Amino acid sequence: AAAAGSPDRTAASRPPLVLPLTLSYPNASRVASSRSRRGLAEGGHPSARMRLHDDLLTNGYYTTRLYIGTPPQEFALIVDSGSTVTYVPCASCEQCGNHQDPRFQPDLSSTYSPVKCNVDCNCNSDKSQCTYERQYAEMSSSSGVLGEDIVSFGTESELKPQRAVFGCENSETGDLFSQHADGIMGLGRGQLSIMDQLVDKGVIGDSFSMCYGGMDIGGGAMVLGAMPAPPDMVYTHSNAVRSPYYNIELKEIHVAGKPLRVDPRIFDGKHGTVLDSGTTYAYLPEQAFVAFKDAVTSKVHPLKKIRGPDPNYKDICFAGAGRGTSPSYQRYFQRLTWYLEMDRSSHFHLKIIYSGTPKSKGLIAWVCSKMGKIQQLY
User: Which domain of life does the UniProt lineage start with (predicted)?
Assistant: First the structure.
């Protein structure tokens, strides 16, 4: 996958940053770097070009439109590179919230078929249909049955409609129950991932790209499939052997040109640094967050502290940033430096979220919001 960020006005002279994360399998680590680079530039397959909607300020996520069935039934799905199942609320759902679009009605689709029980799946109570169940870090969950139908990607897509397996949701809890979006489009590594299904069918190249419009603009674009890579593209690898997630290796963080005094090994946990388009805030180990917080607050002490947007969290917030007051900060990955800089009229806050879940135990989340535009650093 490749994720491209919109350049800031203060960094207009710099080339755009692109992080390619190519879907790969256990033997991918033996592929030569030149071949990996060449694969990013090669086409040969159509791609699914899709618009992104919503924004982080209002919704906390970005969605795309997916069309399932014959005739097509339309859904707004959160684009999530950290999960592997695409699902929508089923008409038979007994515990689903009120969402953006009507629930999926299998009986109204002439091309729908249930995924029958087999050795590769869990089965429902009468052993007739495969089921799925997913739990997320924010303590929400989704469960239902698996079905197969024609999936369409919109009028701008070069890719023709394809048959794909998806979840027909019968129960949801937590944020999934209360959110406006209908469901999730799983783009992660896994057998049920929409990306893996399309790649395995040989209908698209093995990469995808996202570009966010930001909080003040909203929307964006997503492409499923290969895109020509610019010749001067800066990139870093994702190790598929190490983690089921799209992970990269974070080396250090600089604030105002100075590196944080932290042991770089704290960034080298089980999964490394995970890129997750479905997570609103970024997460850092506590030691790194404290160092980052201290470095930033020492540079912006003239600024007025303000209350955070959510009283449930002890956010560290500032307002009234002028040019030269708030520091730039950088992140160093393997073969990559990421520069982000605050400019005049900037507002930003550090958001702290303690989590006791196995996935993120001992981590603290932080986010920097620039002129209403969140810079997501996963």
Answer: Eukaryota
Domain covering 240-375 in this structure, CATH number: 2.40.70
Q: Please tell me the CATH code under which domain 44-224 is placed.
A: 2.40.70.10
Separation of first and last alpha carbons in the chain: 14
Neighbour-count burial of 143, counting CB atoms closer than 10 A to its CB (0-12 exposed, 13-18 middle, 19+ buried)? middle
Candidates 302, 280, 288, 304; CA nearest to 57 is 280
Tell me the catalytic residues.
Answer: 80, 276
How far apart are the C-alpha atoms of 329 and 259, rounded to whole Å? Answer: 9
| CA 20 – CA 18 distance, rounded (Å) | 6
The three-state secondary structure class of 367 is: coil
d(CA 353, CA 283): 9
Residue in 164, 137, 188 with CA at minimum distance from that of residue 69: 164
Instruction: Tell me how far CA of residue 98 lies from CA of 102, 103, 181, 214, 278, in angstroms.
Output: 9, 9, 9, 26, 20
Confidence of residue 86 (pLDDT cuts 50, 70, 90): very high
Is 230 a residue whose pLDDT tops 80?
no
| pLDDT score for 134 | 94
Identify the CA nearest to 67 among candidates 153, 145, 149, 164.
153
CATH 2.40.70.10 occupies which residues in the chain? 44-224
Q: What does the block give as tokens for 280?
A: 């609103």
Give the residue ranges of DSSP H helices in the chain: 33-41, 175-178, 194-201, 286-299
